[in-house]
């Protein structure tokens, strides 16, 4: 899988993540999976460190690539550790609206577009968070009107705080308000439990596989693989 805007050495990611949350020592913006023919369905993902494969050992072992592989799809990813709907990210490639611009949605015609963000927005102004979620969903609908749109909301870090729950609810409500047909994949609300590294937030390689398996099941349940 081709990656651009890569920084640093991945071996330092977990230690850095433990210090600065979803911040990490490398990031990428815009990537296309050469592992599949161009005429296959495309999964487009915009997100933060978990979409960048932090904890898995490399982006190629992250849940977006694993999910696309399970489905037999292509994958394209734009992610920056530390980014959110409001948060700019560790390498200032975000927030999500800016990262979205690194994808080629209008030309790639993705089947599904997923936004993975929320943890880094905990404590953000509710009004600003709501407005930014609206902007991101609206931009996806403009660039890829035929794509299914999904959001992966706040990931748990041990026992979720009231602020984390509040942020999660704001994102879900704003996404559904922006596009009533949005698919919501809610790690907090659905009580996702998967193996994590020492920071209790980022998935291990097995954790990324768990997320990919869970989403593949959800995709089939919702008919997104037809």
From TrEMBL:
| Gene Ontology terms, MF aspect | hydrolase activity
Q: Where is the signal peptide?
A: 1-29
**InterPro entries assigned to the protein according to its UniProt record, in alphabetical order:** Ester_Hydrolysis_Enzymes, SGNH_hydro, SGNH_hydro_sf
The record's Pfam families line, in alphabetical order, gives:
Lipase_GDSL_2
**Record flagged with keyword Metal-binding:** no
- Residue span(s) of domain SGNH hydrolase-type esterase: 46-209
Does the keyword Signal belong to this entry? yes
User: Which keywords does this chain's UniProt record carry?
Assistant: Hydrolase, Signal
Q: What is this protein's record name?
A: SGNH/GDSL hydrolase family protein
Tell me the organism.
Nocardia jiangxiensis
What high-level taxonomic lineage is stated for the organism?
A: Bacteria, Bacillati, Actinomycetota, Actinomycetes, Mycobacteriales
């Amino acid at each position: 899988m081709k990656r651009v805007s890569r920084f640093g050495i991945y071996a330092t990611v977990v230690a850095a993540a433990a210090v600065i949350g979803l911040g990490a020592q490398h990031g990428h913006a815009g990537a296309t999976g050469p592992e599949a023919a161009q005429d296959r369905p495309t999964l487009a993902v915009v997100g933060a460190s978990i979409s960048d494969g932090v904890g898995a050992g490399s982006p190629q072992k992250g849940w977006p690539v694993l999910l696309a592989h399970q489905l037999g799809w292509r994958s394209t990813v734009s992610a920056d550790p530390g980014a959110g709907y409001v948060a700019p990210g560790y390498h200032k490639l975000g927030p999500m609206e800016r990262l979205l611009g690194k994808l080629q949605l209008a030309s790639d015609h993705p089947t599904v577009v997923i936004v993975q963000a929320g943890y880094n927005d905990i404590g953000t102004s509710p009004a600003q968070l709501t407005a930014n979620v609206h902007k991101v969903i609206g931009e996806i609908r403009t660039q890829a009107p035929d794509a299914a749109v999904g959001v992966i909301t706040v990931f748990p870090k041990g026992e979720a705080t009231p602020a984390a729950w509040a942020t999660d609810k704001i994102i879900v409500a704003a996404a559904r308000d922006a596009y009533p047909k949005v698919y919501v994949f809610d790690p907090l609300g659905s009580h996702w439990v998967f193996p994590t590294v020492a920071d209790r937030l980022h998935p291990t390689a097995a954790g990324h596989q768990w997320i990919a398996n869970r989403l593949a099941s959800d995709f089939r349940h919702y008919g997104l693989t037809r």
